[in-house]
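ok trying this again, last paste got cut off
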Amino acid sequence: MVKKLCQIGYINRIFRNLFKVDKEQLRPLYESLKSADCVVCGGSGRSLYSLNTAMSQLARMKDSKIVLTPDDTGFPGKDMYDATPELEKRYDKILLLINSGSGESEDPKSLAYSLAKYLKETKSRKIVMGLITSNPDSSIARIVQRFGHVVVLEGRGKISPKDEYSETGIMGDIFELGSLLLLQMMCEAIYEEGDVDRVFELLEAELINIGRIIDSYIDSTPYQAALEALERRSDVFLGGVGTANEVVKMTAIRLFHIKKFLGENVYIARGVNTPRPRAGDLEILVSYSGETSIVVNWCETFKSLGGIVVSITGNRDSTLARLSDFKIILEEEVKPGQPRRFYMRTAYLLSPLPVKLAERLNKKGLILPEYVLNWYHSVTE
């Protein structure tokens, strides 16, 4: 049993769930990921963003692998049945890796069904499926069990609704964050040329780091400033480029559940429906270098219109850190080609933001019923 490593209860539950993962179940999936020269990512909503965030670090490694999603421009087909023949011409070993807590989401289910059809017809040995899920009896799990490897990672489960969201989390973020950390450590073990035991060694060490980071910032001035802005009548904008964009989309979905209930909106910077911000609106920007020109430009423009900017960066001396009203610094030293933990840690640090907002509203008498959050969740993901 993992001891309490963080003041946020549901974060500790994520940690406990990770150490319930069956090592022998994980081993064949880890070996398939390790040997693949092409990984196709499948998922929906936050589960897909988690998977993309971790796999982006696989793509930047020395001896990097090709990482694709079916939505990529140039993906060689409308589905896996259509794309696999071309993928097999380009790559020797291919892994369709699906991340789905329920195992029932339509997009990854379609990928699994179409690849299963291809494998039944061709008996190909160049491509396998992998699935991380909380539901081993799901539709996707039943397919993947025939053509690959299933790893069970517990999620939120059935928890009675409570006002103390710090204990329960909001809208299934327990599975998404748990799978992100597991996948990140799998990438790092591959970088180190380690075995599956190394995955769990890395997990144990990183849990302490994540708990310390959350506890050190949850009551900090930047975090509290973000919460105060969220409490006011304001829209919220989140921005990042590349992997940072995957991270902010995870947070945006969960903030949307609450802000929409309040009659306000959450936007992704440079989105198709992103309006001109108003004075008092909040922008949260993520950039490891703090020098990405478009992100710095967003910061400058937002401030010029009277908005409040909170940034998370890995460089305390960066332009973004200097220009932001409030900044959080997550410094990290990595070698060239080594997976970076900045994005995963940022996802964990941002996760309690909607949780703490809901608790603040509760204290002021505005109760956010679980069924309302469930309804918004059902129509947005």
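PB: full thing came through this time. The two ends are 33 Å apart (CA to CA).
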